[in-house]
Structure formats: structure tokens, C-alpha cells
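Lab notebook, bench 4. The sequencing result for the construct came back, and we need a structural model before the next group meeting so we can plan mutations. Quick request posted to the team channel:

Model the 3D structure of this chain.
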Amino acid sequence: MANRFIQKGRLVWNTLVKQLQLLFSKTACKWAENSPFVFSPLAYRNPCIGCMKEILGYVLDKKQLSYQKLEMILIDAGDEKDDEDIFDVLAQLSDKLNYLMLITDRPVDFALFVDEMYEENGLIVQQLPKSECGRAKGNFVLDFERANNTASKSGLRPDIIYVPVYKKPWEIAENLDIMVPVGYNTLVVKGITLPQQRGCCQKTDRLDREFRKG
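Done. Here's the predicted structure in C-alpha cell form:
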């Protein structure tokens, strides 16, 4: 009789422990989903896309590299959901670039932009697939990838300026300074007002570019 009560007690205890573990697990997951401190590159929306030209200009100045000598390597996200951001940034930089290397496995999706750059700015945009990223020549990498690590796997020179758009958060301080990830460090960008703070939006979408192209 005593053994039966002991076994029943153990069964009840084990069941209770499992229920508590399950409850704790669900609570922890729910907290993680709602926590403002949890960062996920896959879901991150960069708040600084609309003023990327000014921010990158600040970074270049601090790195003592002018736009005239800028040799940009842009690594494509590889996902259409990020195309708006990518083409917005390219539209901002289009009149500043003297060299551009696109690392993408979707050359067709960039065909319109490549044609426009040649017709409007006389720039021949170079392209390489991601598998050949190591062949790319440049001194500045703007990485739009979220999960893949094309840049690090390709053995690009360690002295290249590397700016990830989504892999690390771009934080905005209370004084409106912008903390931009540059390589393994963070560069504090000052004196730039974000588009949402200006009360306007400066995005240029693909439909607008196609309309202008006629």
C-alpha cells in the first residue's frame, strides 16, 4: 500500500514538474517575442534607409575616404522583400558613385537599375554572383544580407570598410545620434535628421523608376 502511494506521489510530482516546465517555456518565448531588447536580423527594419547617403558620407569622412575614391561593393539581400530598401539606397547614391560592384544571384532584377546608371551617369555597373564574391575589388562593402555571410566567407580584405544594413541594429540615441555598425565597431554619426523626423518620406520605388524610364 505504501509503495502504491509513493509511486502515485511521484507520478503526480513528475506531471506537475512537466507542466511547470511547459508553462515556463511558453512564458519565456512570449517574453522574448515582446521584448524590445531581442534583435533578429531576419525581422529587422533599418530606420535609417531614407538618409543613407548622408550617413555613408559621414562614415566616409571619418574613414578619410571621399566619394570620388569610393569603390563600393553592394551585397544583395537575395530576397524581394528587401528590394525597396536596396533600390532606395542605390537611388540616393546614384549620382555619387564612380564605381559599383553588385554581388547578386539575381542580375535580372537589377537590369533596369544597371541600364539607368549607364544612360544617366555613364557608369558601367559590374556584377558577380555570390559564389565569386572573393574576386570583387573595392574598398567599401554595403551588406544587405540578413542570414548569409557572403562577405566573411569570401575572404575580402580585412582593411575594407564593412557596413551591415540588417545584421546589426542601427541604434538612435536620445540626442538623435545614430550608432552605425562599421566592421566590429560602432561609429557615432552626428547631425543627421532622419526622414521620419523631417516629417517626410524620401523613398523612390521601382514603379517610379520604370515610369521615369518611359
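The radius of gyration is 24 Å.
Will bring this to the meeting.
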